[in-house]
Design a protein that fits this description.
The complex is a heterodimer of chains A (297) and B (225).
Chain A lengths: L2 H6 L4 E6 L13 H7 L7 E4 L11 H10 L4 E6 L5 H13 L4 E5 L20 H12 L16 E6 L6 H14 L3 E6 L3 H11 L6 E6 L4 H10 L7 H8 L6 H16 L5 E5 L7 H12 L1
Parallel strand pairs in A: 1-2, 1-8, 2-3, 3-4, 4-5, 5-6, 6-7, 7-8
Helix pairs in contact in A: 4-5, 5-6, 8-9, 9-10, 10-11
Chain B lengths: L1 E5 L2 H7 L5 E5 L4 H4 L5 H13 L3 E6 L7 H8 L3 H6 L2 E4 L3 H13 L6 E3 L1 E7 L10 E3 L15 H4 L26 H12 L2 H4 L17 E2 L4 E2 L1
Parallel strand pairs in B: 2-3, 2-4, 4-5
Antiparallel strand pairs in B: 1-6, 6-7, 8-9
Classes of the chains: A alpha/beta (297), B alpha/beta (225).
Chain lengths: 297, 225
């Protein structure tokens, strides 16, 4: 099912995310990420499948998306420009549609230097705006050079935006280009400051595209500190890190749930959905999804 | 300027293994500016090689070794010395190394031509003698007219054409926090110039056929093929 249909139906769209394993998952073996996703199947509309996230080489997002589909889940196939040139990107989009994928999230991709193959050659032949434009063209029945396809693809096109970005107007300039290029829904980078998010929402209200608030579950004070120091584009307020640190380690999960609940209650009314990035704590997603659904009404 | 950096001495020695008599060719153009291959650096490396037991047959540093018009008048008269060498060691960019090889071929000589430098980019000389920053990828399709004179193909780690990625933070690049995000620089400059609307235009996929290597520039016709 296309996510765009759920947005059209005015549903509050909940998605979560899994990262494919670093290894082969033939015949469903070594596929704990599928099992993790399956546990939240009835609480989410779809599950993002990351594409060699953080530039760490793993099982491909298309294969993992297909495994999710076979398990009865709705995948959002993430596709980055880092590792593929224009031929490979278009071919993979056609492959995805052929294999039953309905949703694709078009991203630039983290730089190779951040991952486990820093000596590799980054491709970046195409950027995320161009990728959306190209994907829309495939949906219309032609490749980027204008050559006809024997059959068009039929993919819902998603994109990402980072409300933390300064200057925000520059990020929004790119967001508008993505919309003009064919983006039909947006998932945001993780934001921990409701006021900052509200300022972002006010600026994009007139853009006419559904937005899902991105929520990375804060799992420990150390993780918050790590994200501030090493994950560019995400800012965790010191007050939240201190709040996590105020409880013993055994209480981190409860505290994480409390913080996420608070954020969702504030932010859900501003958006058309939530995108969870639970980093293994998918068991918190059902309760948080219910909180978000309630708060959105 | 073509930026160059010295190869580790051990790597140079390994490249010269088995060759006793060495002819040295520097470059008093870019490599001199980079303090890697001007006459002074050639002389210094010659001393180090002598200390390792090598014989230095000759030292020469054309004004621009990549330019036949400059290199050939210096190297041609050295034919006998080149012939007496077991190998040449060039302290210049990749172009200088290959032109030196080419000159030896025009002289009817066949001998190994090795390099002592790594070429590291088309650079400026913002702080002469101190820092050089990469400025251009020679993509063959310059877009500086539309980006405030700041090249995203070079200065953005991902070469993005339609704006920044989401990894930029506080105006710095996700790849190296010490480096400015090219797109924040471009945006601020376009705001100052009153040309932000230019950045709102969709930039299509780059025509990399214009950068398809190896390119030949037909100078009189101004044609690239």
């Amino acid at each position: 099912m296309k996510l765009t249909q759920a947005f059209k139906n005015k549903e509050f769209v909940i998605t979560s995310e899994v990262g494919p394993v670093k290894g082969c998952a033939r015949n469903g073996h070594n596929a704990a990420f599928i099992a993790e996703a399956a546990t939240i199947k009835s609480y989410v509309h779809a599950i993002n499948v990351t594409d060699n996230q953080s530039a760490v080489m793993r099982l491909g997002s298309l294969a993992a998306s297909v495994l999710l589909k076979h398990a009865g889940l709705e995948p959002i196939y993430q596709l980055t420009c880092r590792d593929r040139n224009r031929i490979a990107l278009q071919s993979d989009l056609l492959s995805a549609c052929t294999l039953g994928i309905d949703n694709v999230l078009c991203l630039t991709g983290d730089h190779l230097k951040l991952g486990d193959h820093p000596t590799g050659k980054g491709v970046f032949d195409i950027d995320s705006v161009q990728l959306l434009d190209i994907a829309r063209g495939l949906n219309q029945g032609h490749d980027m050079m204008g050559n006809d396809l024997t059959a068009a693809s039929d993919l819902a096109l998603g994109a990402v935006v980072n409300p933390n970005f300064q200057p925000l107007d520059l990020q929004l300039l790119k967001m508008e280009k993505k919309i003009a290029a064919g983006a039909e829904f947006f998932q945001t980078q993780a934001v921990y400051d409701p006021k900052l998010f509200e300022a972002f929402v006010r600026k994009v209200e007139g853009f006419g595209v559904p937005i899902q608030f991105g929520l990375v579950l804060l799992k420990s004070p150390k993780m918050g500190k790590f994200m501030n120091e090493h994950v560019s584009g995400i800012k965790v307020p010191q007050a939240l890190i201190d709040e996590m640190a105020s409880v013993p380690e055994a209480g981190y999960k409860d505290k994480s749930l409390a913080i996420a609940t608070r954020l969702l209650k504030e932010i859900s009314p501003m958006v058309q959905g939530i995108h969870f990035m639970p980093l293994g704590w998918s068991d918190l997603v059902p309760q948080l999804a219910a909180t978000a659904q309630d708060a959105s009404r | 300027m073509i930026g160059t950096a010295k190869k580790p001495f051990d790597e140079i020695l390994a490249a010269l293994q088995g060759f006793q008599k060495i002819g040295m060719v520097g470059c008093d153009g870019c490599a001199k500016v980079c303090l890697t291959g001007g006459s002074d650096e050639v002389a210094a490396l010659a001393q180090e090689l002598k200390a390792q037991g090598k014989e230095i047959v000759f030292e020469a540093s054309p004004e621009r070794t990549c330019n036949m018009a400059k290199a050939k008048p210096i190297l041609d008269p050295l034919k006998d010395q080149i012939q007496a060498s077991d190998a040449l060691l060039v302290l210049g960019c990749g172009g200088a190394v290959q032109i030196t090889r080419y000159v030896t071929e025009t002289l009817g000589l066949t001998l190994p031509v090795k390099t002592g430098l790594n070429s590291v980019g088309h650079m400026d000389t913002t702080v002469p003698g101190t820092v050089a920053v990469e400025q251009c990828q020679e993509c063959g399709d310059c877009i500086l007219n539309d980006t405030g004179g700041i090249c995203p193909v070079t200065k953005c780690a991902k070469g993005l054409l339609n704006g920044p990625c989401g990894g930029s933070e506080d105006g710095k690049c996700e790849v190296d926090p010490a480096r400015d995000c090219a797109w924040v620089l471009i945006y601020n400059r376009m705001v100052a110039l009153g040309e932000v609307d230019t950045l709102k235009k969709f930039v299509g996929a780059k025509d990399y056929s214009k950068a398809a290597k190896p390119r030949t520039l037909y100078i009189k016709e101004g044609r690239v093929a």
